Amino acid sequence: MSRIATVICAAVAVAAGGYWLTGPNTNVTFPLVSAAEAQEADLDTSTIVEMVLGAEDAPVEIIEYASYTCPHCASFHQGAFKQLKKDFIDTGKVKFTYREVYFDRYGLWASMVARCAGPEKFFGITDLIYEGQAEWTRAGGPAEIVDELRKIGRLAGIDGDQLEACLQDGTKARTLAAWYQENAERDGIQATPSFVVNGKKVDNQSYADFKKLIEDELGG
Fold this sequence. Notes:
The strands form two sheets. The protein has a five-stranded mixed beta sheet, sandwiched between helices. Strands 1-2 form a two-stranded antiparallel sheet. It is built from ten helices and seven strands. The protein is α+β, with helices and mostly antiparallel strands. The chain has one domain (5-36, 48-217): 3-Layer(aba) Sandwich (Glutaredoxin), CATH 3.40.30. Helix content is 45%, strand content 14%.
């Protein structure tokens, strides 16, 4: 999914100052943030937890940049990623870090749901979000889409109060957007999925090519 990095935070914005979406049949509201808010000086991006699988001292480090609304990202996670995990992550050869990309507000909301129960459930919820991507992204308007994301959160075992607290956390939303912008600018991310393998940027490719690249890094 090719998209230009200049839309990094602007795509999250809906109005110059941001606004709030009220969910259906509830008084709960959901934060949307603007590019200006995402760059507030008082946001501490060091508070954002990196979501990591694999051995900390693995010889190969892979960072994936992906958007929950990106069909190519969903395809990767439903296919090549499972093989990557089996062959290299679970065997201690690869440390894998997943970093969210926010090209739109729906991807940001999905991220807030995925992170709601902490690192222990993050990758399991990510799998559910990608598996249901075709359904929740086409559920209708913003209210319907966020309601479908709620269902995924509840399916993952997040209780209602905790889930609503996560979705209402405006400071977290702004900090995530700023964190993404810092990462994307540093690593030159312009499309999803994109990868950084031992410090070198790599575009999406077949698993066979990816496997060879990793094996070359391992010296095999």
